[in-house]
Structure formats: C-alpha cells, structure tokens
Amino acid sequence: MRISVFWYCLKQGIKNICRNIWFSLASIATISACVFLFCLFFSIITNIQFMIKNMESTVGITVLFEEGLSETDILALGAAIGGRSEVKEMVYVSPQEAWESFRTDYFAGHEDLAEGFAQDNPLAGSASYEIHLYDIASQDQLVAYLQGLEGVRQVNYSNTIAAGFAGFNRMVGILSLVITGVLLLVAMFLIGNTISVTAAFRKQESQIMRLIGATNYMIRAPFLVEGLLIGLIGAGIPLAGIYVLYTRSISYLAERFQILSGILMFLPMEAIFPSMLVVAMCLGVGIGFFGSFFTIRKYLRV
Amino acid sequence: MIEIVDVSKTYGTGNRALRDVNITIGDGEFVFIMGRSGSGKTTLLRLLIKEEEPTSGDVIVNDIMLQKMRRRHIPRYRRTLGIVFQDFRLLNDRNVFENVAFAQRVVGVPLRTIRESVPEMLKLVGLSSKYKAMPQHLSGGEQQRVAIARALINQPEVLLADEPTGNLDHQNAVEIMKLLLDINQMGTTVVVVTHSQEIVEQIGGRVITMDRGRVISDEIKNRSGHED
Fold it and tell me: Would the CB atoms of B110 and A2 count as touching at under 8 Å?
C-alpha cells in the first residue's frame, strides 16, 4: 500500500467519525463499557487465581495420627497419602520436630521453662504430615479420603477460605463471560449503525469512486479505518481508567485492610497490564473492525 | 474501438430497453447518441461502463468482451474511461483542486504526480484561477468543467458524457461542447448522450439516433444540421 493511500484512508476515516460525531461517541461509549467490564473482571479473576495459587503453596492440610500408632504405621500411611494425584508435596513432622518447633515459637527467651520437658516430650503423640496440593479445589476430596483412613485422629484444613475463593472465581468467570458477551453484541450493533449512517452520507462519493475505477478495497478502506479508530479509542479509554483505578485501589486496600494482608495479596499492575492491554486492544479493535466490515459488505454494494 | 453487437437488454420489470443494437465507434471519434427519454441511450452508456449486463449480444471495448470480464478487473477497465454526468456529481465538501485530485487519489496515484497533473488539467478546462473555490460557488458551466477535468485526469481512452449540457443554459452548453471537441482533437474518443437537437445541430458530426431501444439512424451531420 502506498503511503499516500494510507494517509488518504486514515484522513477519510477520521472525517467519517467527525461527520457522525454522536453516533461515533455512542459506539465508543459502548465499546468502552464492554472493554472496561472485561478489564475489571480480568483483574478480579487474575487476582483471585493469584491468591488461590498463594494459598496452595502456603495453606496446607495437617494430618494428625492416633496416639499409640507406631512410626512405621504412620510412614506407611504417609506413603499411601503421598501416592494420591492431588498431593503436590508432603512433609513428615516427627514428634521431636513438632516439639522443637513449638519450643522455639512459644518458649523464646524462656528456654529454662522448657527444660522440664527435656526427657518427656509432651507432643509424643503429635506426629503429623503437612500436605500441600496442586489445586486447592481438590481439597475437599482429599480431606474426605484422609478422614476415612484408619489411624488418622484429626485433619486440619482451611475449609471456608479455599472453597469460597474457588467458588467465587467460577462465579465471576461466568458472570464476566455473560456480561462481556451481551455488551459485545450491543457494541457490534451500534458500530454497525454508525457505519451504515456514514455509508449513507458517503453514498455519492462511493458511487463516484466506483465509476472512476477505485477498487472495492479502496472504497471500503475509509469505513474500516473508521471502525478501527472507534475500536481503538473505545479500548484505550477504559484501559487508562482501569490502570489508574487498579493502582489506587490496591494501595487503598493495602493500607485499609492490613490485617488481611496474608490473604489479600494483589498482583502489581505491571504484572497484569501487558496481557490485559493486548487482550483489551484485540477486543476493542476486533469489535470495531468486524462491526464495520460486515456492515459495509451489507450496505455498500461495490 | 467500441463494438456493440446485436445487444438487447430487458430489465427484470419486463421493460425492453435495448433491441438488437449494433454500433461501432472507432478510436478518436466524436459521436452523439441522441434520442428521447426512454429511448435506451442511458442504458447503452451503463452497458459501456459495466454497470449493467446485456441480456444478449456482445459489448466489446478495446478488444475486451465486457461480459467475460472478471469482477476484479472491472476497476482497472473503468480507469480507461472518463465519465461525465448531467448533475456533475461533485463533492461539495471539497474544493475544485481536491475534486479533480480525488480521481487520482482513489486509484493510488502518487501525491507528487497529482500536484503536477491537476493544475495542468484545470488549465485545460479554463479553471486555473478557481482551484480553491468550492463547487457550490461555481456556475453550472464551471461545475461541469470541473467534472470534465476529473473525468480526464487519469487520461482515459474514451470519454462518456451523459447529458453533459442538460443542466446548463445555451451559452454554457455550447462552451462545454466546444471543450469536449477540443478534448476529442487531442485523441480521446468522445461519446455524448443527449436529447438536445439544438446542440447536435450546432456542433454536427456523427449522430446515432435511438428510439424505443432501437438505432433508427446513424449519420454524419454538418454544422447546419444537414446530412452530408
């Protein structure tokens, strides 16, 4: 494509937008709403997934065994548990290690008080396994298995948080798909309307172009440029908005809810913005391009 | 060369616009196609610019049979034609220069060439001083000159004019016809569709007369209107 043809199409595309400024603004607003909601859900889902991943590595299941069970039996049970597909890693904590850890945590600075237990480990029956999972969603399944094992006294796990996060993430995912889908259709319809109005305005020009010997591509190009520009602006505005909103929200939540900092760990904007930018731009430009492409094929006989 | 061989055209409504028309126009000729409204002359023009397809017969332009032409080759074919309309069809949001340049821009002519060729073309049609004027500020004759400049800017082999003087007063009409004759003198084949007996008699030359879709006469008339 010649550079002069490129500039001509770009100029005509901008002119088209200005000519139907209200229709163009309506299309931009709808695409913006669509992309904004998409970005919002994208941020939420990405962060929840990040939190769940964190939980999978930090939150684990602790299995305690009945007193009197020999270490050999416990290790045999451990081997059975370790063979499960849900288990990512498993650490055996012997009674001695449990006591050492307890003593370090709770008798710090008062070691003399623990001396009385030197020959008599109070946690003699507290051998345990700390289990970490590949996917926290499979926690319930593994817990049920562990509780069913003979010799298992207690299974400690964080039921509510894991289940809540996984469920919430699924719900947000479905909701975002539905809302983004509906808005996408509305945006396509509106952009189609905008392009058909422009096509009506430019009907004579298109006819002249056709008779002069302009190719179909040349006749359609300004309309496609118009759609592309509307899509580009429609994606750019919400991306800028989300960038500011996200950055401020993260610092606000971090300050306001310090107590939940262990659970509410957010990804920095730099970590999610590149992928969000690419997907949102594709979405906006895609709506603009295909909306105008199909409309112009329908309304402009060339 | 333009050859129209046994061409008939019937529209979907059943209207028979052309019936067994046979016309041959040589390179560099100046031809009037005359007839009343509904005689089929505009349909003939539409066949030549491949806006319509004949129901039967062949339309051959410069050895190309138009019915066999592929869709993607139509734009390139149309660039060998210049077309002028009764209602000028100028773009009112662009000035004279831009209207003429438009024909070159949309076929991808480089800007440098456009900057050289448009002033030359405006000089040819006598509108050099009005290159910045908007079409709505020009007289009918001047607007038609702009339309002719636009039709000629890509140096077509054939100029087709559909009632080019239909919206003009007598004096402007004569001037436009003189301009078309000058263009013909430079080697371009010119086909003028008109219903104006007065203009045809004043200019003279080859006149093909049509009536109800048929060619009823094909004759050379001198300026006074008498047959040679």
Answer: yes
